[in-house]
User: Fold these one by one.
Assistant:
Number 1:
Amino acid sequence: MVLSLLCAGLRAQEPEREPSLEEKCEMETDRLQALLELEDWQAFYVDSILKHDYKAMQDEFDRFQKEKVSSYNIYQGVQDKWMEKIDAAFCKLFTPEQWEAYLKQGAARQQKAREKRRAKAARQL
């Protein structure tokens, strides 16, 4: 019994493992499927879109990291670009009702924030 408690205590001290990119995509797909009542074929495409675009975004981040780029704005711009692509793909995939629900659950707020950053960057040029 003492040994099992000791093992449990050691496991509790281990840092939680960060979910992989694929796991994050699957969790987001599951969340959207439940929230938007997606058909199975839509969930398949959502998962495919997320896995492709998140991977491409991560590859771009990695490239900048190797080049020792440290500007937060550059990383934010990359993220905004890929999130716009994801939203554009989702807009084509979802029904009008699903799209409205997607926007209401926070996507509209994120789109506004990206637009503000884009406008601010344009003013600075």
Number 2:
Amino acid sequence: MDVQVFWNVIGNYNEKTWIIQIILLIFVLLAVTLSYMRKVKWTAKFVLGIVNLFIGIAFFAWYGTEPIL
């Protein structure tokens, strides 16, 4: 994959998903806070799993469709 194509794909992904990224960041910060305060210990792991699923599906399935050369 050409370097410029790679950065275009990342830019396109960030441009189209910035609202979802902000919402997920707020959830991660809240979950880490709850886990750190020992209110709900498993929350951070659960939310980080959801975020990784989103990144895997959104970036690699929808936007990362360019062939690697």
